[in-house]
Structure formats: structure tokens, C-alpha cells
Design goal:
The chain has 287 residues and is α/β, with parallel strands linked by helices. The strands form three sheets. A seven-stranded mixed sheet has the order 3-2-1-4-5-6-7, with helices on both faces. A five-stranded parallel sheet has the order 9-8-12-13-14, with helices on both faces. The protein is 32% helix and 25% strand. The protein binds ribose-5-phosphate. The site of ribose-5-phosphate has 16 residues, from strand 12 and helix 7.
């Protein structure tokens, strides 16, 4: 029996469904004046169901849509796979300050309770959060696809840079795909205000093209600070490659003002760009 893909009709969901030869069922959302969502499926469900829904801003609404779709699918099907290309709340994977709720633990219970048998995410901020899920999870990566795109740009004397130490492993993998050098800056974020500072004192980047690699851009604060630092140290051009370009508010403007020449991102956020990750997701769905 053919699988069914349920989605909001994003570019990524369309590609996943074509690669699987699945039937694509969309849904419509009507928002009530008080903010409630009325979700209506546009087709019948049977067989294995794959729900494709990123938990992107507004994250709480997207989360409820994802859970509702999974729950509805589970009423009709014994196997429901949740593909959550961008998993909001992934940064809340531990108690940083006393009393903070580890929301990723809550999400794990919600996805299981709704009826997902497996959750597939892309370049999650930290896999520690996924380990809190009481069901099977797979974290696929967009790094090779992003790196292939960057390769075609023919950058000069390329240096791959992570804006923080936490992303050093990601930058290393990215650099390895391109046979380039890499380094990580030291970033400090104030846990109360969210303000970002680059603590690295010096960097030998003079005349080099830079690709800043990150899992996500939200407000753009981290990337803007890193780009300003690199420009101050006389690098040539700065590009950003990230998986999830949320680009909240003036993020794009602020990043451009900081000297970034272009942003390369994956198609995990509807309406975003360009680099397709459907192949890696379909490999994780298949077994
Ligand atoms: C943090 O460690 C993440 O990897 C990103 O660097 C960060 O969440 C991006 O957020 P913003 O764009 O608001 O600085």
C-alpha cells in the first residue's frame, strides 16, 4: 500500500512525497478570532503515514498542528512517522538556570502520546534533547548538501568558522566535505538577556573567504557578532551556511549590515531557501 504524506504543502514535503512515491494529503487551517486553529485534512488516510511539519515560528501553534496531525493520523493508521525538519525548543535541552523547565523532555512525551512511532529531525541544535524522547529518533544532516552548494561558489582560500565552540564539530564536518580549514570562535551569551559577545581575541583570517556555519539563525545576533569580528580582522568575504534560517524580525538586515554577503540555508523552514534535504530524510524514513 502507498504511504501517505500529510503536510502543509511545503517544498520539502512535496519532494519527500515524490521521492517516496507517496500520496500527498494537505490540510487547511482556519484561525478563530481567539487564536485557536481549526485543522481540516483534505484527503483520506490509510496505510503508513508520514506527517511532515516543522515546529517553526509561531512555534507553539506549529507544535500543536504537528501533534494534532499525528494524533489524527494515528486514529487511522498503525504506523505514523513524524518528520519535524526544524524542531523548535531544541535549545531547551537542559536546566541552564535553576527552575527552568526542560521543554524537550515534555515534547518527547507529547510526540509519543500523540502516536508517533519515530521522529526524524534535521541538524537538531543538540542531540541531548533527542535523548530525552521516549521513542525512536533520527537526526539527519544537511551539511553535505549545504557543502556541495558552497563548493560551486568557488570561494578563495576558504576558512570555515563556527560562531561558537558548541558548533565546532559541525564546522569540522562541513570543512571536511570541502577539504578546507576550520576554526571556532568563543561566543558568550548572557543567559538572562540573551546578549551575545565574541570573546576570541585574535584570528588570522586576513584576505580569506569565510563560511560561517551554524545550525540555525534566529535573531541573527550570533552571526552578526561573528561577522563583525571577522571583518575587523580583515577577512575577504563572509557567507553563512545554516540549516534552519528562521530569520526573525530584522535578522537578515542586521546580518547584511554586519558584512555578510549571502546566506545559504536548507528547505526546512517553509518559504525559506534553496538547498534540498529531502534525500537524507527519505533515507531515514525508508527502513
Ligand atoms: C546557539 O548555540 C545556536 O547554535 C545558534 O547559534 C543560535 O541559536 C542562533 O540564535 P541567534 O540567531 O538569535 O543568535
Amino acid at each position: 500500500m502507498r504511504s501517505i504524506v500529510i503536510s502543509d504543502g511545503s517544498d520539502l514535503a512535496g519532494r519527500i512525497s515524490r521521492r517516496l512515491g507517496a500520496r500527498h494529503v494537505r490540510y487547511a487551517v482556519r484561525e478563530f478570532p481567539d487564536g485557536e486553529s481549526k485543522i481540516t485534512l483534505r484527503g483520506k488516510i490509510q496505510g503508513r503515514v508520514i506527517v511532515v511539519k516543522s515546529v517553526h515560528p509561531p512555534v507553539d501553534t506549529s507544535l500543536l498542528h504537528a501533534l494534532s496531525l499525528i494524533a489524527k493520523a494515528r486514529e487511522e493508521s498503525a504506523e505514523v512517522i513524524a518528520v519535524v525538519p526544524y524542531m523548535g525548543y531544541a535549545r531547551q535541552d537542559r536546566e541552564f538556570l535553576s527552575g527552568e523547565i526542560v521543554t524537550m523532555r515534555v515534547l518527547g512525551r507529547l510526540f509519543r502520546g500523540a502516536g508517533a512511532s519515530k521522529v526524524i529531525v534535521v541538524d537538531i541544535h543538540s542531540t541531548a534533547g533527542l535523548r530525552l524522547f521516549p521513542i525512536r529518533t533520527i537526526n539527519v544532516t544537511a551539511i553535505p548538501a549545504l557543502a556541495r552548494h558552497v563548493k560551486k561558489m568557488r570561494l578563495r582560500n576558504l576558512l570555515v568558522v563556527s560562531p561558537d565552540r558548541g558548533g565546532a564539530g559541525r564546522a569540522k564536518k562541513f570543512a571536511a566535505e570541502l577539504g578546507a580549514e576550520c576554526m571556532a570562535l568563543e561566543k558568550k551569551r548572557d543567559r538572562k538577556t540573551g546578549r551575545v559577545q565574541i570573546r576570541t581575541k585574535d584570528a588570522d583570517v586576513s584576505g580569506r573567504d569565510i563560511v560561517l556555519v551554524d545550525d540555525m539563525i534566529s535573531t541573527g545576533g550570533s552571526i552578526a557578532k561573528a561577522a563583525q569580528f571577522l571583518k575587523k580582522h580583515k577577512c575577504r568575504r563572509v557567507y553563512v551556511a545554516c540549516t534552519h534560517a528562521l530569520l526573525i524580525g530584522d535578522a537578515k538586515k542586521n546580518i547584511t549590515r554586519a558584512g555578510v554577503a549571502g546566506i545559504i540555508s536548507a528547505n526546512t523552514i517553509p518559504g525559506g531557501t534553496s538547498v534540498d534535504v529531502s534525500e537524507a530524510i527519505v533515507q531515514a524514513i525508508r527502513p
